[in-house]
């Protein structure tokens, strides 16, 4: 069995790492480069940096910050926020990103996924999906969760895969920041539908939550923010416990 990945997520607003609940009530939690370096040293497998205000404010993604991250961090990292063309993606690749993630722009223009994948390869493209349960349906949202779309989670994830996405990063907005656990049944259903890796996001509060989404939820990776930013569950402690219960993860040498 492939090793499961542990991925801290750093939401960036105005150059600072921030965290909130259900995408609201944001407060600063540290410098993105320093936090990233710490997580790499602690044994994180990858990092995800999301400029959560880029799309909403109509700004381009933070290529200058990406350059600093790349020169300071020795593990793969993914960046997203405001990417609306394969040229945007190319600038981030040149700046040092290992992967990019697209969300709102891809919902608006699904051809964007195909364009980036055909230009740079599927392994470079992560499609992020923010969805919430509305009237019994997982509704895909855009612009940092502000705007519901007409799309439904499972059909959109399948289309994203068919268009060339290399991974799906699904965040449940109903669980984000609550520390009440991931919607494991939803992740398991996604895993059954898709053949590409799934990164689980939104709701980690305990080691058991992460263990559950990697087993019951069949996710390939667990992404979390609050528990790492506030030092509630150190990555070395998490990984050792996952190994103890026979969930394969990589430990730092």
Give structural notes:
The chain is an alpha/beta fold and about 250 residues long. Helices cover about 35% and strands about 30% of the residues. The protein is built from ten helices and twelve strands. The protein has an eight-stranded parallel barrel with strand order 1-4-5-6-7-10-11-12, surrounded by six helices. Helix 1 (about 30-40) runs parallel beside helix 2 (about 65-70). The longest helix is centred in the first third of the chain and has 11 residues, at about 30-40. The chain is globular and about 45 Å long. The mean pLDDT is about 90.
Short description:
The chain has 253 residues and is an alpha/beta fold. The chain has helices at residues 32-42, 63-72, 86-95, 104-108, 111-120, 153-162, 184-193, 207-215, 226-229, 235-244, and strands at residues 5-13, 16-21, 24-30, 47-51, 77-80, 99-102, 125-134, 137-142, 147-152, 167-172, 198-201, 221-224. It has 10 helices and 12 strands.
């Amino acid at each position: 069995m492939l090793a499961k990945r542990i991925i801290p997520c750093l939401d960036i607003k105005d150059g600072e790492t921030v965290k909130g609940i259900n995408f609201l009530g944001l407060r600063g939690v540290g410098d993105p480069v320093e936090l990233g370096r710490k997580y790499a040293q602690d044994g994180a497998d990858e990092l995800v940096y999301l400029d959560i205000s880029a799309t909403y404010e109509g700004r381009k993604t933070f290529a200058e910050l990406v350059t600093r991250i790349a020169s300071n961090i020795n593990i793969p990292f993914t960046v997203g926020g405001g990417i609306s063309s394969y040229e945007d993606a190319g600038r981030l690749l040149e700046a040092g990103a290992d992967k990019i993630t697209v969300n709102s722009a891809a919902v608006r223009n699904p051809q964007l996924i195909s364009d980036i994948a055909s230009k740079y390869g599927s392994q470079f493209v992560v499609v992020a999906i923010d969805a919430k349960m509305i009237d019994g349906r997982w509704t895909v949202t855009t612009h940092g969760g502000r705007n519901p779309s007409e799309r439904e989670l499972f059909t959109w994830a399948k289309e994203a895969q068919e268009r060339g996405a290399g991974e799906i990063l699904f965040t449940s907005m109903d669980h984000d920041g609550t520390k009440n656990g991931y919607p494991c049944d939803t992740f398991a259903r996604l895993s059954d539908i898709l053949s590409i890796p799934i990164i689980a996001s939104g709701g980690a509060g305990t080691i058991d939550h992460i263990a559950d989404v990697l087993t019951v939820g069949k996710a390939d990776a667990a992404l979390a923010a609050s528990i790492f930013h506030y030092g509630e569950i150190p990555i070395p402690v998490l990984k050792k416990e996952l190994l103890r219960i026979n969930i394969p993860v990589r430990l730092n040498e």
